Amino acid sequence: MQPGMTQDVETAAPEHGSVELTEGGSLLVLSGEIDKEVVRHFRLTVRPADWPARVDARGVTFMSSAGLELLVHLARKQKRAGGELEVVEPPASLRMLLTQTGLSRVFRSVPAPA
After folding, report:
1. Are 33 and 61 in contact (CB under 8 A)?
2. pLDDT for the residue numbered 113
3. DSSP string for 29-91
4. How confident is the model over 20-35, as pLDDT tens digits?
5. Tell me: the pLDDT tens digits for 72-84?
């Protein structure tokens, strides 16, 4: 990059959290701080038609309202398709947040595969 030029924020991956599709696109792995920049990056790089039915949240250290909204959108997509969003082992802090907001009823928490 030339001096004085900046990288386009809309396409730059956030440095503090990450979202990655694994297992052939069937699992979304969240890690670190899931905030509006991380969610924006996800929405710009993954088409809604490709959104998975499972989310691995074991590595989440913080989730903003934008992250919660993303979970709601993922859950709604699964419900429209006759399924249910599965969230793999959300950490205690995230489970408490989901319970306090009532979002724990929107999807199902599941244990990590052995």
Report:
1. yes
2. 83
3. EEEEEE-HHHHHHHHHHS-GGG--SEEEEEEEEEE-HHHHHHHHHHHHHHHHTT---EEE---
4. 988 888 999 999 999 9
5. 999 999 999 999 9
Ordered strands of the 54-63 beta sheet: 17-22, 27-34, 54-63, 86-88, 108-110
CATH assignment of 35-110? 3.30.750.24
Q: Is 24 strand, coil or helix?
A: helix
Q: Give CA separation, 58 vs 9, 46, 88, 98, in Å.
A: 27, 21, 7, 14
Total residue length of the chain: 114
Region 11-21: what's the mean pLDDT? 71
For tokens 């992250």, what's the residue? 67
Q: Could you state, in order of their start, the residue ranges of all structural domains in the chain? A: 35-110
Which residue(s) pair with 31 in the sheet?
18, 59
